[in-house]
Task: structure prediction
Amino acid sequence: MNQMSFEFGDNAPQFPHTYDYYIVAFSGGKDSIACLLHLLDEGIPKERIELWHHEIDGREGSVLKMDWECTPDYCRKFAEHFEIPIYFSWKTRGFEGEMLREDESTASSKFEDQDYNIIECGGAGPKGTRLKFPQVTANLRQRWCSAYLKIDVCTKAINNQKRFLGKRTLVITGERAEESSARAKYKVLEPDRTSCKSRLVDHWRPVHDWSEKKVWNIIEKYKVNPHPAYKLGWGRLSCAACIFGSHNQWASLNKVDHDRINIMSNYEKQFDLTIHRKMSIDERVKIGESYDMNPELIRKALEDEYTDPVTVQDWETPSGAYGDSSGPT
Result:
């Protein structure tokens, strides 16, 4: 049952319409949007597609907000507009809770099942201590935010739902080769870590060989209104306080939310270890130059509710496109 599902040609899979579930890891960023729109272009029935959004900060009242406040609702409104179900998942206590772990097990994961019941699992593993931010590296053991807050949460959500047993599932993510030398080495198609004798799960990166221009072209084709962060000047949508942020992004975030920068700066001092290793957040803020940002867009990015339309007729390329796209190495 676990044989590969695709045939290759020109470094891309020949796309079959034979899966029961198509799970799109959906951040609300341009690449995950492009993945979903590509599925629609390929004629995949909407009733087989699901969007899965991992909430970085959890829902347990984290003081430190790493993500943009509007992101979960932006994703929710996007799903409603395209009439595709969206399911949310998160690590209990989120980014901050995992970062402050001291001689304790990593927290449990929570996810919504197909009936939107919240299922909790895990949380009883070996004890350990972090007390430091994820580090700027391609090594997922040190860049633990991706591994613990996204990959592991997704794994648990698949492993703990009986509906995937005896089914064929395709997990879809939006990494692109153009982003970094490390991502260029990712396989376009491979068995997912959750695949086993009782369920077939493949992992596909459909936009791996796409240029950024091709990504924005399909977004323009569908007239999708980009996330406010792109309009503020960010070139990629990850956390607002992404550890890979450039000097200019840190300076811009300081202008958007100075209190968030203060919290992170104080944590660096508490841990006696900076994110960047060679420079502190405060030093990078001073070096960087803030984007020219519209105050109304800042307000929208920091609100829990997303109120703008999901699609717009007068589509414009956001200021962050083709610009400062600091991201995973």
Observations:
- The domain at 15-224 is CATH 3.40.50.620 (Rossmann fold).
- The beta strands are 8-9, 12-13, 21-25, 49-54, 86-91, 109-112, 118-121, 168-172, 189-191, 200-204.
- The first strand starts at residue 8 and ends at 9.
